[in-house]
Amino acid sequence: xxxxxxxxxxxxxxxxxAAFGYTFTFKKFKxxxxxxxxxxxxxxxxxxxxxxxxxxxxxxxLLRNAGDGKKAPTLSLRDxxxxxxxLGLLIIVAFAILxxxxxxxxxxxxxxxxxxxxxxxxxYLMNAIVAAGIxxxxxxxxxxxxxxxxxLGFMENLF
Length: 159
Description:
Helix content: 55-70%
């Protein structure tokens, strides 16, 4: 398990370094104290720090030969949690693909509803209310508070 954690930490550090480097390609704005690169840089640094901690925590016992002797659990598609994780990933991919075609107001409540069901909440009416409420809240926050328009797909002319 420690070797898998070390490999994961190294991959995470590489990804965070690449993400941090990519932020230098963002457009610079004059008269703006905090540009669009600020938040992604903070996230990249936090990811790097967390991966570094994971790396050190797992490397020191490995160097001391104090491994627990347990093998890493194998991943199986028969595992219910693995199936839920893959289904969640599928929902996110479908959300990203359908975002521009159908628009935010149609795809988001469907994705939120599906994710709530995936988490085990079986109250369909309450799930629908929560999904619609979250969608409306996010839409108005972006449109009126932040001044950012969300893709509306075929409903582009309505709003």
